[in-house]
Design a protein that fits this description.
31% helix; Aconitase, domain 3; 5-stranded parallel sheet; 3 domains; globular
């Protein structure tokens, strides 16, 4: 009888090209996603060494980090403009498909991959972007790579990697009303820390994970990197198959049926052994708000900032409180905000926008707050407009933007000013992430929408629009 295997082991073993004692394995890469920020140096090095892209058909490029989300035709940042023009020329030279600013498939790379069906279970997927772990929601082994690795994949369609350890994050029970996938992953990181996943690929299991939508699963896997993990993934199930059926890059008919069966067989076998397991009770999780300068500095909205007398790493906590302009033991609901950002590769999909719109419908953004909504792709934007979500947001006082990474990394005009305080649905809150001196609080789309209306953090479970 075959030994039970984890999904990580199954994918890894199918993709090993070469093994040698004492060295990393050489892995075959099924899909290489490319954007304008991390690729120019890699393409330049290819040219200097007179190399071509080995598999342009397994490479897909888009523009996302640098694209303006308003005044689309005016790129004020000349470095950003140069990076996008360089990507356009490189894709033309190497016959790589590109979703540029004018293309209907343009969007954040980790939004369009699943949307187009490029992302599929069992694939090895890489991108020069740390949040490539998002694609693990589909049972893919997906991780970010550096510029030199981008060049290696372009040239060889392979990559040297150490086989990772496996960490099972088992989430039992059910999430309560108003508690989202974003709250779940923030609570996990707050409980175990930003380094607990180091050296591991994290597989999420349990009823609470199975009950998440595919969009919710993408949110959880997206932020695995914030726990220090190499990647995060979830074994595919019928929900995965239903999501992918009919997507542009997914086969149809009998070929799809055969493929779907192979996807289900990738799931971790009963009795498979992980290197480590942790367990979370989903019922104990509340809506979360980060207070500090990493995602682990996070508490329930009913909580408060920490006391310096009660914490480890006292100096780190003190510095974070000072940067964030907060006091010890300050209730989260007392924190006023002046910016709201709903978007990013974590929470910019149609389901995220629907939930945020349900909170703000018929209400008005607080006069002290500037609030923007940035769809994760042109496709998401069109779908949202078809359903009238743009009208709901605009009538409430939100700015409705074009697709892109936007305020997640403080790009173009989408910047939080010094000492500005932002309720953000993105994934990182380190010093200066959204602008020089900007103060970022990570929350779910629902929590961000409620904060926009009230002008401060509020328990969204008390808000109209949240199902009981």
């Amino acid at each position: 009888m075959a030994r039970p295997e984890t999904i990580v082991s199954k994918i890894w073993n199918k993709h090993v090209v070469h093994q040698e004692a004492g060295k990393p394995d050489l892995m075959y890469i099924d899909l290489h996603l490319v954007h304008e920020v991390t690729s120019p140096q890699a393409f330049e090095s290819l040219s200097l060494n007179n190399r071509k892209v080995r598999r342009p058909d397994l490479t897909y490029a888009t523009m996302d980090h640098n694209v303006p989300t308003k005044d689309r035709d005016v790129v004020k940042d000349q470095i950003a403009n140069k990076q996008m023009e360089t990507l356009r020329q490189n894709c033309k030279d190497h016959d790589i498909p590109l979703a540029d600013m004018a293309h209907p498939d343009q969007g954040i790379v980790h939004v369009i991959g699943p949307q187009l069906g490029l992302t599929q279970p069992g694939k090895t997927i890489v991108c020069g972007d740390s949040h490539t772990s998002t694609h693990g929601a589909f049972g893919a082994l997906a991780f970010g790579i550096g510029t030199s690795e981008v060049e290696h994949v372009l040239a060889t369609q392979t990559l040297q990697q150490e086989q990772p350890k496996t960490l099972n994050v088992h989430v039992e029970g059910d999430l309560g009303p108003g508690v989202t996938a974003k709250d779940l992953i923030l609570a996990i990181i707050a409980k175990f820390g930003v380094r607990f996943g180091t050296g591991y690929v994290m597989e999420y299991t349990g009823d609470a994970i199975r009950n998440l939508s595919m969009e919710g699963r993408m949110t959880v896997c997206n932020m695995s990197i914030e726990a220090g993990a190499r990647a995060g993934l979830i074994s595919p199930d019928q929900k995965t198959i239903d999501y992918l059926e009919g997507k542009e890059y997914v086969p149809e008919g009998a070929a799809f049926t055969e493929l779907a069966d192979s996807w289900l067989n990738l799931a971790t076998d009963e009795g498979a052994v992980y290197d480590k397991t942790v367990t979370i009770n989903a019922a104990e999780i509340e809506p979360q708000v980060s207070w500090g300068t990493n995602p682990g500095m996070c508490v329930p909205v009913s909580g408060a900032t920490p006391s310096l007398d009660d914490v480890d790493h006292r100096e780190d906590v003190k510095r974070a409180l000072e940067y964030m302009g907060l006091k010890e033991n300050q209730p989260m609901t007392s924190i006023a905000i002046d910016h709201v950002f709903i978007g990013s590769c974590t929470n910019s999909r149609i389901g995220d926008l629907k939930k945020a719109a349900a909170i703000v419908e018929g209400k008005q953004v607080n006069p002290q707050v500037r609030a923007i909504v940035v769809p994760g792709s042109f496709g998401v934007k069109l779908e949202a407009e078809k359903e009238g979500l743009d009208t709901i947001f605009k009538q409430a006082g939100f700015e409705w933007r074009e697709s892109g990474c936007s305020m997640c990394l403080g790009m173009n005009d989408d910047i939080v000013p010094p000492a500005g305080r932002c309720a953000s649905t993105s994934n990182r809150n380190f010093e200066g992430r959204q602008g020089n001196g900007a103060r970022t609080h990570l929350v779910s789309p629902e929590m961000a929408a409620a904060a926009a209306i009230e002008g401060h953090f509020v328990d969204v479970r008390k808000f109209a629009g949240v199902p009981n």
